[in-house]
């Protein structure tokens, strides 16, 4: 049975060549037919609200069975972490991959009560055997300090500190593909 990869995209426009679209296409192509790749369109990505994203995420998860790999890019990673630490699920998650995600509430620019994780969220994360964090050291959309904050709260995670300024990873993210295939 194929493993399912559920990819939750970033905020902002998601048309061809925008937002997470290039990264999603790259990942789907690189994983190939050995994986079922699911990349739903999340509601109003240019004006996202956690409640509507949560409902869409639940709808997508309810369609899935078997071993599931979760991948969240930027806001999508924040949403996955919030959902997993606030909701229960009977699904089997074999991996969680968080890419360039904001740590809401970390600093003045990144304030959003609806996306902020609960205190001690790290203790509420279900037992997912493989957790990876990816972030470019010099990116200028989500500061690298957010990656460091997640890495500190989630010491069990493999933290991938990437060179460069990538946030959208328009040319792909080979290490992500390698890590998913390594599960």
Topology at a glance:
Layout: E1 3-8, H1 21-31, E2 35-38, H2 50-62, E3 67-73, H3 75-86, E4 92-99, E5 131-136, H4 144-153, E6 158-162, H5 174-181
Parallel strand pairs: 1-2, 1-3, 3-4, 4-5, 5-6
Pfam families: Ser_hydrolase
GO molecular function, one term: hydrolase activity
Protein name: Serine hydrolase family protein
Summary, kept brief:
The chain is of the alpha/beta class. The protein is built from 5 helices and 6 strands, in the order E-H-E-H-E-H-E-E-H-E-H.
Task: Describe the protein in words.
With 183 residues, this protein is of the alpha/beta class. The chain has a single domain, classed as Alpha/Beta hydrolase fold, catalytic domain (Rossmann fold), CATH 3.40.50.1820. The protein is built from 5 helices and 6 strands, in the order E-H-E-H-E-H-E-E-H-E-H. A 6-stranded parallel β-sheet has the order 2-1-3-4-5-6, with helices on both faces. It comes from Sediminibacillus albus. This is Serine hydrolase family protein.
């Amino acid at each position: 049975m194929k493993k399912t990869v559920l990819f939750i995209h970033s905020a902002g426009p998601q048309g061809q060549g925008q937002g997470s679209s290039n990264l999603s296409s790259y990942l789907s192509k690189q994983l190939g037919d050995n994986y079922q790749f699911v990349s739903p369109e999340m509601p109003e990505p240019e004006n996202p609200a956690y409640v509507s994203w949560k409902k869409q995420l639940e709808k997508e998860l309810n369609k899935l069975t078997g071993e599931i790999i979760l991948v969240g890019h930027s806001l999508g990673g924040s949403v996955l972490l919030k959902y997993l630490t606030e909701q229960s699920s009977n699904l089997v998650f074999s991996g969680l991959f968080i890419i360039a995600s904001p740590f809401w509430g970390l600093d003045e620019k990144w304030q959003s009560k609806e996306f902020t994780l609960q205190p001690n969220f790290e203790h509420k994360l279900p037992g997912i055997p493989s957790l990876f964090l990816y972030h470019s050291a010099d990116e200028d959309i989500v500061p690298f300090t957010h990656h460091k904050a997640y890495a500190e709260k989630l010491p069990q995670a493999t933290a991938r500190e990437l060179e460069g300024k990538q946030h959208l990873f328009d040319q792909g993210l080979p290490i992500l593909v390698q890590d998913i295939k390594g599960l």
